[in-house]
Request: fold
Amino acid sequence: MTDANTIADRYIAIWNEADTDRRRALIAEAWAEDCSYIDPMMRADNREQIHALVTAAHDRFPGFRFTLITNGDRHGDNLRFSWGFGPADAEPLIKGTDFAILEGDQLKSVHGFIDQLPAAA
Reply:
């Protein structure tokens, strides 16, 4: 059984991968074939849609990076971890917590929650 931090690190690596072909390979490795993702702003129901969400994040926020801000916590087939998102080498502007259901060591579903957004100007 893969530890929680390794799975969370693989997930973050997908969101940070700029190369399209490499990202698709990482998604195929980390996500179960029948998978889903949902957060307050986006939804995906398969690997290709997950890839499209990540691509859209790269297009909308060039130079931003995801980082883990807590260790992963695994209980059986459940996983949770918190992340930050913002300009590289800066304090994250957005923070969130994701809860995942695993299928073996792959992500079956991820439910994302936003914990912190920048204050409106």
